[in-house]
Amino acid sequence: MNTNEKTVALVSLGCDKNTVDSEKILFSVKNAGFSITSNLSEANIIILNTCAFILDAQQESIDSILNAEQYKTNGVCEKILVCGCLVARNGADLVKEIPSIDRIVNINEYDKMPEIICKLYDDDSFNVCESSIAGRILSTPQHYAYVKIADGCDNFCTYCTIPKIRGRFRSRTIEDIVGECKNLVRDGVKELIIVAQDVTRYGIDLYGEYKIVELISTLSEIEGVKWIRLHYCYPELISDELINLVATNDKVCKYFDIPLQHVANNVLKKMNRKSTYESICKLIEKIKSQTEKIAIRSSFIVGFPDETEQDFEQLKNFVVEYKLDNVGVFQYSREEGTPAFSMPNQVSSKVKKQRQKEIYQAQQNVVKENNRAMVGQVITAVCDDIEGDKAILRSEYNSPNVDTVIISEAIDGIKQGQFYKVEIIGFTDYDLVGVIKGENV
């Protein structure tokens, strides 16, 4: 087989950590001589990096595999490979249920993807992977990239399948991460978004102590880095030292993504979360008390087993009172293999849907209030995209694709990935409206 004659497409599903894996797979495949396409109809080989965190994600992954199967039936696609969390969760059953899958690829085999493909074609002449080159083909805009600093999780929340799927928490070395980030910045990346299932736990397994502050401080010394953003900080491990770093380091975004999941002590205990309502309130107040504004994003689960109306009202009141900048709300998904699956007093779908709606409504009012307070301010923002005559910008207080954006008239010369001074002049139901006042250097 001549690899130059084969074209590969990759479908990446799920979280930002999966995105990083997909980008590395694409690089290794291209480095081996394969052509890359984003059009499935042009691909001889389709790779699907799946998600299996909740039932909806599993179904989306299966639907994507079946969609790839159609291209194989039509004669364009020759091989289908499936990797990611769905494989880790029930890979053996996948092949039985969807025989068109030519190979499932385990998480620890990603660096061998080109070799695996060649073997599917009975080609033993594969040489490139023997001296594998680490790299990425970014699927994000060129000015920002996700950097995965660890895999797996040690928190063992009772609703979550991640420890079973991805294993125990495993940190990368500081040297390895810094090397990757230097390469990304050299290639034009200006914002490093640091991701792991729990970035605050970083380093404890390798160094015997938490090293997230040291890591971020080291990354901030890289010339050319404009912003460093943290995803996801678990509340019980956010130290005063980390808060101070976020508040005072000019390169670290004034932003915390803290997946609280709930605030009622009854629910938190059954979730096996280490926080309490009291400790959560104290943490949020401490972050908000800093001289510099620090935006807070969080996510919550409604309808967890035995969540009472009182528990839910406490959560809703917390959202109203503490006015977090951005909030995601998810209905509890009952996952087999988790302790919560067999808990009594499961909440009905109808109630979960209603509770989700009520939290979103409460947060919508908070967002309007927060946005109103931004009117008149001049802030630094990066242009993420240009859509017709509109520029879509984002400040350090907002992460890509999940938070509010700033919409401005696309003035002549504005460029994606460039930073600007923007005056906030108004807001829509959710997003801010701004006027670009000039380039920020």
Write the layout of secondary structure elements.
Elements: E1 7-12, H1 16-31, E2 35-36, E3 45-50, H2 55-73, E4 79-84, H3 85-97, E5 103-105, H4 113-120, E6 144-148, E7 150-151, H5 162-166, E8 170-171, H6 174-186, E9 191-195, H7 204-207, H8 212-219, E10 227-231, H9 240-248, E11 255-257, H10 265-270, H11 277-288, E12 295-302, H12 309-322, E13 326-331, H13 349-374, E14 378-387, E15 390-395, E16 406-409, E17 419-427, E18 432-439
Parallel strand pairs: 1-2, 1-3, 3-4, 4-5, 6-9, 9-10, 11-12, 12-13, 16-18
Antiparallel strand pairs: 7-8, 14-15, 14-17, 15-16, 17-18
Helix pairs in contact: 12-13
**Termini distance?**
50 Å
Strand order of the largest sheet: 2-1-3-4-5
Strand content: 15-25%
Number of strands: 18
Q: What's the gyration radius in Å?
A: 23 Å
Regions with little confidence, pLDDT below 50 for 5+ residues? 128-133
Estimate the mean pLDDT confidence. 93
| Helix-and-strand structural type | alpha/beta
Major sheet details: 5 strands, parallel
User: Which bin fits the share of residues in helices?
Assistant: 25-40%
Shape designation:
globular
How many helices? The count is 13
Protein model, in words:
This protein has 441 residues and is of the alpha/beta class. Helix content is 35%, strand content 22%. It has 13 helices and 18 strands. It has a five-stranded parallel β-sheet with strand order 2-1-3-4-5, sandwiched between helices. Strands 14-15-16-18-17 form a five-stranded mixed barrel. A three-stranded parallel β-sheet has the order 6-9-10. Strand 4, helix 3 (85-97) and strand 5 (103-105) form a beta-alpha-beta unit. Helix 12 (309-322) runs parallel beside helix 13 (349-374). The radius of gyration is 23 Å and the shape is globular. Residues 128-133 have low confidence and may be disordered.
